[in-house]
């Protein structure tokens, strides 16, 4: 009997202890996220230049090309990048073509075919190594004969003491200019395998010649000025023309020489 009472007391004691036990839920701890350490930032010294982020890019183009504010404002409606604007100015300055809405839209719509654009402008689709292709003889302020947009064949000429002739078909571009009074001759010939430019001013003693062969882009350039004694010869392998690289070269040239300008005559149909 005593044994039964003892067992009963033990059972009651165990039940009492179990009922008094509280199982506490663990508190939600705050997880502190460790900071991820990134690699060291590149120093400004080695950072790649981004010429398109320059807020003064328009001022730069205006300064290099000596172009007035009114003419720069004309291009705002086309929403051009700095390299596109500078390249359009370069094309028109080298060819003396007038700038019109149709001309600009033609260039923009043929951004993937610079060969076609330069053909219309009578220019070689080439860039020298790290240099800007410009002719050293004094540029004429006159607007010369040019190939109308979209045409593959065209003939035109001027007669008199100034003779000028343009003859273009689907595989040949030929331009000739002669001013007998000023003793100036100029010739451009473009074929499928070659570009050739010749200029001669007998009064000033200047001769200039450029020849480019395709598809190798091998070029030979020669400039002689008997008045100054300057004689420049260059040859090498050029690269296909690229507005982005052209703009970069403009920047580099200006960084090297703060007085660098492209002396041109931009005729804009405002």
From TrEMBL:
Composition-biased stretches (Basic residues): 33-49
Secretion signal, residue range per the UniProt entry: 1-24
Keywords: Signal
Region listing for Disordered, in residue ranges: 33-54
KW Signal (keyword) present: yes
Origin superkingdom: Bacteria
Name of the protein described by the UniProt record: Uncharacterized protein
Species name: Selenihalanaerobacter shriftii
Source species taxonomy: Bacteria, Bacillati, Bacillota, Clostridia, Halanaerobiales
């Amino acid at each position: 009997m005593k044994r039964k009472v003892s067992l009963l007391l033990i059972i009651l004691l165990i039940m009492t202890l179990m009922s008094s036990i509280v199982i506490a839920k663990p508190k939600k701890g705050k997880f502190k996220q460790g900071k991820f350490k990134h690699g060291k930032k590149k120093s400004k010294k080695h950072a790649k230049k981004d010429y398109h982020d320059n807020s003064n890019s328009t001022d730069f183009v205006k300064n290099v090309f000596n172009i007035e504010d009114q003419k720069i404002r004309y291009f705002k409606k086309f929403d051009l990048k700095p390299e596109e604007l500078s390249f359009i100015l370069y094309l028109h300055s080298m060819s003396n073509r007038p700038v019109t809405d149709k001309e600009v839209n033609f260039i923009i719509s043929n951004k993937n075919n610079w060969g076609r654009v330069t053909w219309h402008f009578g220019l070689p689709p080439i860039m020298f190594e790290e240099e800007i292709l410009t002719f050293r003889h004094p540029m004429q302020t006159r607007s010369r004969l040019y190939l109308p947009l979209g045409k593959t064949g065209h003939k035109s000429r001027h007669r008199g003491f100034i003779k000028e002739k343009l003859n273009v078909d689907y595989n040949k571009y030929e331009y000739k200019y002669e001013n007998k009074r000023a003793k100036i001759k100029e010739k451009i010939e473009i074929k499928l395998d070659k570009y050739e430019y010749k200029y001669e001013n007998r009064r000033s003693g200047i001769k200039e010649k450029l020849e480019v062969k395709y598809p190798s882009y091998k070029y030979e350039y020669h400039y002689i000025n008997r008045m100054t004694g300057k004689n420049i010869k260059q040859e090498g392998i050029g690269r296909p023309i690229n507005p982005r690289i052209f703009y970069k070269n403009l920047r580099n040239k200006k960084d090297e020489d703060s007085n660098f300008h492209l002396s041109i005559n931009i005729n804009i149909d405002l």
